[in-house]
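Supplementary Note 3. Input sequence used for the single-chain structure prediction.
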Amino acid sequence: MPGADRSAAPAPADLALPVAGNKLLTADDGAVLRVADLPADTDWVPLGTLDGVPAWATEPAGAQDLPGRWRGWASLAAEVPEPLATLASRALAVVTWRRTHRWCGACRAELADVPGESARRCPGCDLYVPLRLSAAVLVAITRPGPAGRPDELLLVRHSYGPTGLWALVAGFVEGGETLEAAARREVGEEVGLALDGLTYFGSQPWALSGPGVLLTGFTATAADPGAEPVVDGRELAEARWFPLDGLPAELPPAYSISRWLIDATVTAARR
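The predicted structure, written as discrete structure tokens, is reproduced below.
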């Protein structure tokens, strides 16, 4: 449960998530740290609670001298339960936002924390600066397979990042756009397909693309079952239809909403 209550001091057994750049500190064995594991003078920022236990983040000075294991969010998310991965994503987002939003962008005064909120306000011009999210969409697109064959799923390979993976069409939402409009636009731009039956699936905070990214997943069918994808040549290197009983091994990791969408599509087709 996200929260920003500073009224109570951290207790020794509370969860602790130190952040340095895009890394999080855990114990050597990968366990989440507790407040008692950090120096007594640590400056803590409230994150909320996990299963009723308060959680705190910090950006410690002399991070390199702290005992434990610094690791990226993807490494952590691959090993821990999903709620803890979400908490780690929030820690990265909150700490990064606080570091990059210290000064007012309108009048240059130093921003002040808003009590009880993940937000800051300018004492000079009253500018309100909340913790902002960057929304992105991804779509699992299917079409009927050849006669007597299973449905097919469209998978793409990007021209950047983990280029060996077969993933889903995805992209960021533009200002003034709904999530649904963004999904249709991204699919049209990247693979040249129109969609039918666009349906919301779920969402996931996603720290791998940067702190504060929220992925929103959709399922859809190709409006023209005979249409073939045409890649944009910039973001995508390849796009192919795969039968649901013959998906490639190089799929997104199990902790990602992209994989949840793919697995849910396969499961639905077997019913």
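The longest strand covers residues 195-205. The chain has a mean pLDDT of 93.
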